[in-house]
Design brief:
The chain has helices at about 15-25, 30, 35-55, 135-164, and strands at about 60-75, 85-95, 100-105, 115-125, 125-130. By secondary structure, it is α+β, with helices and mostly antiparallel strands. Strands 3-2-1-4-5 form a 5-stranded antiparallel beta sheet, with no helix packed on it. A hairpin with a 2-residue loop joins strand 4 (about 115-125) and strand 5. Helix 3 packs antiparallel against helix 4. It is flat, with a radius of gyration of 29 Å.
């Protein structure tokens, strides 16, 4: 047999960098970004849903005036020795002539202080369990929407710049 009779393909290359460049040129940029656009779309949908939940829950909750009676600060240390602060806020309030004492809130703000009068939100069926303010959900939802829109715009512009 004569080994000289075999022809090598002109598409093969002994240089792997050249092969990778050929593949990159054949694959459009936007096809590689489809998953990123899907993730951005999911964040957008989640943001809108969270915002709507916060907006509609304003009608679901009742409000009461409460007084902060205690704020407990706990410091934990993570594995690296970094400090991690946790704050527990307790309030007293009255709903329908029933007094609720030392009820823990599920949220904290650095502007809170003992003796401060705040507005709490509760469900009629469970007034002893104060909820996060609906505005918190609206803010979180708005952040999701804003980040999603900004990410979509940035990716679209970068895709257009990549074409030219």
């Amino acid at each position: 047999m004569d080994n000289n009779n075999f022809e090598t393909s002109s598409n093969t290359s002994s240089n792997p960098q050249q092969t990778n460049n050929n593949i990159a040129k054949k694959t459009p940029f936007w096809k590689g970004m489809i998953i990123v656009y899907i993730v951005i779309g999911m964040f957008l949908v989640m943001g809108v849903a969270i915002f709507i939940m916060g907006y509609t829950s304003k009608n679901k909750y009742y409000t009461a005036k409460a007084v902060i009676v205690d704020i407990i600060e706990e410091v934990d240390y993570d594995i690296d020795g970094d400090e991690d602060y946790h704050y527990y806020v307790y309030v007293d309030y009255t709903v329908n002539d029933v007094e609720y004492k030392n009820v823990q809130l599920s949220y904290y703000s650095s502007s809170m202080y003992i003796g401060q009068e705040i507005e709490i939100y509760y469900e009629r069926s469970n007034p002893g369990n104060p909820q996060n303010p609906p505005s918190t959900l609206m803010i979180i939802g708005g952040i999701f929407v804003a980040v999603s829109i900004a990410g979509g715009i940035i990716l679209t512009l970068s895709n257009r710049l990549h074409k030219y």
